[in-house]
Design brief:
Structural class: alpha/beta
CATH architecture of the largest domain: 3-Layer(aba) Sandwich
CATH superfamily of the largest domain: NAD(P)-binding Rossmann-like Domain
Radius of gyration: 19 Å
CATH class of the largest domain: Alpha Beta
Bound molecules: nicotinamide-adenine-dinucleotide
Strand content: 15-25%
Strand order of the largest sheet: 3-2-1-4-5-6-11
Largest sheet: 7 strands, parallel
Number of domains: 2
Number of strands: 13
CATH topology of the largest domain: Rossmann fold
Shape: globular
Length: about 325
């Protein structure tokens, strides 16, 4: 029987690639999005589109009566700085919205929830890199707290109501359709500056690192998380999976790779470091590889070229 899946945030960057892969794999796909940062044109033509917010009573009612077996939850307030300035807004959308959907999901008989968590914000900086799922948790922003708290709520719904939950802890996701506000916003910002022939600005010495994972690899991880058999839930980390490459890339390397692939000799300027940034980050994807045979397939230069070409064509 065809499985029916609700993708929240499916008009956004990552959610739209997730909706694409579900459509390609023959799922019956419905996208729910309030278009606050997403775009209608990102939604695949074969998916039904519904413009509700995650806090709307209609969103809950849709899950209660819509016959969904899978909820794939990507809609979120996902700007770290907004969460610092307005933690109540972050809490309302990311936690209140999640609970509204989960209440609908349990009434509607949803079998599994796949959730977009973040490996960039739930771990503290104390452990050795790259962080495994079991690394110490110490979010430093309200956004990080809302992602980790969401994982706890999902665990409770699994224990109380038998809804399987798979939090995917993403590294810095980049690729076509990304916007400058996400956790890998630097890629979009650099590409746009290159297209305008503006010098690239690097904050601090540029040796701060991130783990960049291509969005189509992330979409494949969502498919694996939808289909795969789940480990038993004794600890939150048992059912959570890092989705990254395990490789640290510095901002300087990122800038140089972009200059290389675009044959550009634009200058790189340095500016004062920004407060509140982690200095180094990378997450270990070996559990996802061992459990569901997932490997990142798109390397950084190839992925950056595809992202740059898309941003150029979207101007
Ligand atoms: N981009 C990254 O590197 C990254 C890393 C870790 C986790 N994530 C998570 O992945 C998810 C998707 O992020 P993205 O980068 O694709 O961002 P995005 O802004 O492109 O996508 C978010 C989508 O959710 C929609 N949305 C926002 N608030 C909503 C609401 N209240 N009701 C309904 N829809 C709403 C937006 O319109 C948008 O289409 C988020 O949950 C984010 O926290 C992203």
């Amino acid at each position: 029987m065809t499985e029916r899946v609700l993708v929240t945030g499916g008009a956004g960057f990552i959610g739209s690639h997730v909706a694409d892969i579900y459509v390609r794999e023959g799922y019956d796909v419905v996208v729910l999005d309030d278009l606050s940062s997403g775009r209608r044109k990102n939604v695949p033509a074969a998916a039904e589109f519904i413009e509700y917010g995650v806090n709307d009573p209609q969103a809950r009612a849709l899950l209660e009566t819509g016959g969904f077996s899978i909820l794939n939850h990507h809609a979120a307030q996902m700007d770290v700085r907004v969460s610092v300035e307005n933690p109540l807004r972050d809490e309302r959308i990311n936690l209140g919205g999640l609970l509204n959907l989960l209440e609908g999901a349990r009434q509607g008989g949803v079998r599994r929830v796949v959730f977009a968590s973040s490996g960039g914000v739930v771990y503290g900086e104390g452990s050795a890199l790259p962080y495994p799922e079991t690394a110490a948790k110490l979010p430093v922003s309200p956004y990080g707290v809302s992602k980790l708290a969401s994982e706890y709520y999902l665990g409770v719904y699994a224990l109380l109501h038998g809804i399987e939950a798979v939090p995917l802890r993403y590294a810095n996701v980049y690729g076509p359709r990304q916007n400058p506000h996400g956790e890998a916003g630097v890629v979009a910002i650099f590409c746009s500056r290159l297209l305008r022939d503006d010098p690239l600005t690097v904050y601090g010495d540029g040796e701060q690192t991130r783990d960049y994972v291509f969005v189509e690899d992330v979409a494949r991880a969502n498919l694996a998380a939808t289909r795969g058999a789940l480990p038993a839930l004794e600890d939150l980390d048992d059912v959570a999976f890092n989705v990254g490459t395990g490789v640290e890339t510095s901002v300087n390397e990122l800038a140089r790779t972009l200059l290389d692939i675009t044959d550009s000799d634009l200058a790189i300027h340095h500016a004062a470091p920004r407060a509140g940034e982690l200095f180094r980050s990378a997450i270990d994807p070996s559990k996802l590889a061992a459990t569901w045979n997932w490997q990142p397939q798109i390397g950084l230069a190839d992925g950056l070229k595809r992202t740059y070409d898309w941003i150029a064509s979207d101007q």
